[in-house]
Amino acid sequence: MTKRAGSSLLEVQVALPLIALLGMVAVSILIQMYRVAISSDGRLSANRELRQGATVFASELRPLRARDVTAWNDTMIEVQGLIGVGIVCAVNATRDRLSVIDASGTVATQTDNNVRDDLWRQPPQAGDRAELWRDADARDDLTRAVTRTVTATGIAAACPFASQPETRATTALTLDHAVVEQISVGAPIRVTRPTRFSLYKASDGFWYLGRRTLSGGSWDVIQPVVGPLLAPRDRGLTLAVYDSVGAALAPLDHRASVQTIRVRMRAPHVAGRLVAPSPRVDSISIDIALRGNNHDGAPSP
To answer: Which of these three, 192, 212, 241, is where a domain ends?
Structure first.
């Protein structure tokens, strides 16, 4: 009996459609898996960015007081951002140069003419605002805030009472005007810098929450903090400001004290630079109550 080699034309005609069908099924499964992966990655990315945005706003805004909030609208807020808080440990004879330390004994250093110190969130610089508190007045027994502008920074000698005066340096702040005599060694000092958070469109076509600061009399280049977010028309970032009784304040309305800032962000599901096949969106909303709204006196001239 002779054995037949190969396949008949009929067998080939039957096998080819089956192979094509199996290939189509495999491709369909791969496409579905790809879409699920993009959707899952996009959802995780959106959640991560929204949580990061909530953390940034809370850490930046919660230490502020009512008068630190200087301007806002639906997609922007401008504040006196906190640079650091310290203690005055020395005042020069003309009372326009202060040596500052923090309560934990941090050592200040200097690199490239910038002060580096755990006391500061960012290196202090000319143009920053220094706020100090003078002794209480006998007339009302209230402490009074004194505001000055920093004109120069540097490293000063250790304070006489430092725990390790031979190794401990201090941050030197030169002010535009002398401080009053009621401000003495041991007075608290708070340094702030104009900071703006806003929704902006980057060169990649996506929208981001950006941060910029006022340095040397001009705003620096905006830097992305969180994103991508949705566009303004889709309410990617919405800001609202409320007073102590919960009434909404209009932009630039300082007739009432700012008590709470409500932030809402909406982020699309984006995997890398690819938007998920379905236009899904996640959102987060937080209310930030300002901590420093206790009465601390009006700024002196």
So the answer is: 192
